[in-house]
Design a protein that fits this description.
Blueprint (H helix, E strand, L loop, with lengths): L10 H8 L11 H11 L4 H8 L3 H8 L7 H11 L9 H7 L1 H11 L4 H8 L3 H8 L7 H10 L11
Helix pairs in contact: 3-4, 8-9
């Protein structure tokens, strides 16, 4: 493990360790964030997988944004990488932390009924109700539609 454990990663080191230019790593995504922090701890994918008790293919798919990891898996990875899980969360995961109150506040701020918001997002009124009651979670597609249809910047969806 980590020969650079307590040092700041330079762009050159990152590019050599990943064999990828740092400019190609999208740290706006969960996968990019995992890749960045894994390299910061000087771990190979197989080492991270073993320490997390996951299959290496899971880490590869996660880093390539081919799967949506659960919050449990992200917490496990964060624990192994010795970082706060918030550093791995993208805007959608941050939104999920308090999506019920966020949706209700946004709806009320915009003076919309559940029926009206449902029509805008192309979901049933009961879906809006279930989101607000936290009985179901909005999908990533629902989240993206919410952001685009209501012309929100993504920070507005997790700072309510």
């Amino acid at each position: 493990m980590g020969s650079i454990r307590n040092t700041i990663i330079t762009e050159t080191y990152f590019e050599e360790a990943c064999n990828v230019p740092v400019s190609l790593i999208n740290t706006d995504t969960v996968g990019g964030k995992v890749t960045y922090h894994r390299v910061a701890k000087d771990l190979l994918q197989r080492e991270l997988a073993k320490l997390c008790n996951l299959d290496r293919a899971t880490i590869i798919r996660l880093e390539n944004n081919q799967v949506q990891p659960s919050l449990y898996i992200l917490k496990t990875i964060a624990l192994v990488l010795e970082i706060d899980v918030a550093l791995l969360l993208d805007d959608y995961f941050k939104f999920l932390l308090e999506y019920d109150t966020t949706i209700k506040c946004l709806r009320k701020d915009l003076k919309l009924t559940q029926l009206q918001l449902g029509a805008i997002l192309k979901v049933h009124r009961k879906t809006i109700c279930r989101w607000e009651n936290r009985s179901i979670k909005p999908t990533r597609d629902n989240y993206n539609r919410l952001v685009s249809k209501l012309n929100l910047n993504k920070e507005e969806t997790h700072k309510k």
